[in-house]
Amino acid sequence: PTPRTLLLTGAAGGLGTLMRSLLPEYGYELRLFDVRPVEGEPDAITADLGDKDALREAVRGVDAVLHLAGISLEAPFEKILRSNIEGTYNLYEAAREAGVPRIVFASSNHAVGFTPAPRADTPPDSRVLIPVDTPHRPDTFYGLSKSFGEDLAQLYWDKHGLETVSVRIGSCFAEPTDVRMLSVWMSPADGARLFHAALTAEEVGHTVVYGSSANTRLWWDLSTARALGYAPRDDSEQFAAKLIAEHGELDPEKPAQSHLGGRFVDDPPVWPY
Ligand code: NAI
Ligand code: 15L
């Protein structure tokens, strides 16, 4: 059955803004949560993930949570600890206490960012795709917090029966903007399809999936996502000629071009606040 009331954390962010416009057509009523005000949404809850009372209030009566809030780039460990590690724990505790049955957790490819990518000079149809059970190889403190979130989700399933789909999102933006993104891009429309599948599939326990479109140059295995009912419709290949003409093919000798996490392995973009 489709959950009706969905708590969307991180609603003011890039992905939160995309999902605010795309998810209502799947039948969700959204309750919004973010530490920053959500533009044009006076009923949004403006609170930090450190505020346990606000979280208890936020989860009351919801059918599921789409947990996007957190620092989305690299940052000093103390900041990651507060927002992503303690913050995600606080959310899970509030959800457990309230009996919320399912969370969809925005994990990231950076939980496994130091995994070597299939070489760019291997033809796409003979590449060995990275499975979801590849060991955690975080590329940053940020990626480490996503590895933690996946383990936390496993614990809450095993111990408390709270279900999670952990989505290791690639790059969910309107368009891919570099050559790596040809492999890891998730179109916003496919993002909404995947989150909807993760929210509605039966008996997920704790399931880990990669989050991307059906890209010709895909690096990872989408079979666990497809098993939830996800049927991606987009492919980044339409952007390939222009991006490759501009930047060239990925260089397998350069760490930032030959690992899943891209530049996060040596020069991560840093959280601005
Ligand atoms: P974003 O940085 O645009 O949005 C994150 C939101 O979380 C912001 O609005 C921020 O105010 C809020 N937030 C941060 N710390 C908070 C706290 N302590 N309490 C309450 N709210 C807090 O990031 P984006 O791109 O929208 O990503 C959303 C989620 O998806 C993040 O968890 C990110 O790590 C994950 N993700 C996103 C990817 C993408 O391609 N956009 C790729 C992989 C993972
Ligand atoms: C992420 O986890 C970030 O939140 C997002 O801003 C992108 O950098 C994305 O990964 C990526 O790997 O492209």
From TrEMBL:
InterPro entries attached to this UniProt entry: Epimerase_deHydtase, NAD(P)-bd_dom_sf
MF (Gene Ontology): oxidoreductase activity
Keyword annotations: NAD, Oxidoreductase
Gene3D superfamilies per record: NAD(P)-binding Rossmann-like Domain
Domain NAD-dependent epimerase/dehydratase: 7-176
SUPFAM superfamilies from the UniProt entry: NAD(P)-binding Rossmann-fold domains
Region (Disordered): 251-273
Family: Belongs to the NAD(P)-dependent epimerase/dehydratase family.
Protein name: NAD-dependent dehydratase
